[in-house]
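Risk register update: the risk that structure generation would not scale has been downgraded. Supporting records follow, first protein first.
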Amino acid sequence: MPRVSGKLVKQAARVSPLLPYLLRANPSLAQAQQELKWIQAELPKHQWKNAVKRRNAYEPLQYILESQPFGSLDIICEKGVLIPRWETEEWCLKLSSVLSILGKKNLSILDSCTGTGCIPLLLNYELNQLANLNSHIRAFDISSDAYRLSKRNHQAYSSLHPSSATNIKFIQANLFSESIVSHVGIQCADLITSNPPYIPAHHYHKSVGLDGISRSVREYEPAEALIGHMEFYEALINNLVKPLSASGFVFELGYQEQADYVYRMLKDTEEWRVGVLKDSASNIRCVLGWKSNSPMRVLGQLCSSIYS
């Protein structure tokens, strides 16, 4: 990252003595000012100086403020658990919109690698609280930190939306376990969702100048929630989608080759269709699959392209 110029530091200091601390982690003065507004709005005054110093060391703002907006929810964030991203929020809202069309009263959803629990909580809010659908959601993560935080987020959700909170259950489980289905405690699921670790190790370790991940992410967010590749998509299909006779799935990803891999796993099965979804920045974001004769074929409406 280029060094911050003295001129910019002086310009920032004229606005606030706190603002120069935010320049290292922000590409522009305007973004630094926005972060300062959030800090001052969400933290008591005696914490402002410590907050900007932590940000000066590249600590993610979400860990400093201890939350991240996600749809209509505020998700509690803690070190050791991946921070929810806008890209995930975007596809979750799109997914809930098409699922609402179904009007299915007993929709069963399983979320793998749940992290903070942001995906199942937002889906539950959109489907049960807003669309009045009686869906049931289970979610799991192998990480004890993630399990604990997802339970905490569930408790926070319960205090605001008690009528729909009982539809969600969080457990700690291993996607790669041969007994994963018995661990999650369900016999079948309509839909499997996941935001698994999908950054290949060689890309994770690239420098920022070579299009590697940011310093903030590398130094503070858990590597085990970021580093992964084809093995996760293979496990999602073989250990969850097939044994649970799921009718559809939505998996977040970051690379076309990952979507191609999922398609190849299912292309010889006539009942399955597979497509990809791009985010609003035109980057490939999800691979989706659905059984063509099932209600989950509505997932095709989300796709930017569908494999022939």
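Supporting record for the second protein:
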Amino acid sequence: MNCASHTLRTYVTLRSARVIGHTKMATGNGLASLGVEGATAAAHALSLPADAYGNDPQLEVMWAMKAYQHAEIYFNLISSVDPKFLKLTKVDDKIYSEFREAFADLNIETLDPDLLKSVEAKEKWRPFCNQFEGLVEDFNYGTLLRLDCQKDYTEENTIFATRIQFFAVEIARNREGYNSVVYNSKKQNSEAGQS
């Protein structure tokens, strides 16, 4: 059982987890409330193969929370550091060159979900993604990806993708200057607040 095969159900679960996450993280009761032993157990549980669990709803919420936290951290990162200088993996150059070779015309500024999720798109993405097995840790784990790179993660602007799809699109957005809008906006807002 692959995380990507549960895209829709997990994304729906994410919507619930996002509300829970906002509430718990805002009050400081998020994953830290699990304590050291609980957090260690959760980390171990998330590292086991998906087929060890079947359709455990609690595990789906944990995956959704992990995906949401990753998204939140990444957005804060591109808001705080000029994205053109970011290195997301040890193999960014390979990911970028292979991505642009396979998807030269893909509009990464505003993604069309069908170009990631349709049957035809999945057939094109599969060989691209699989070449990074063993090179990129957790290459096929579920991750959140923004459709419009000028906007934050919202229900309307977010889809569930594999981690390697996230890296491919976001490395390209960083290198091609599309994520600079987020950084520059945050920078201008903080400068305006200091004036």
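The helical segments are 7-27, 35-47, 57-80, 92-102, 114-117, 119-130, 163-175, 180-194. On this basis the risk owner (M.S.) recommends closing the item.
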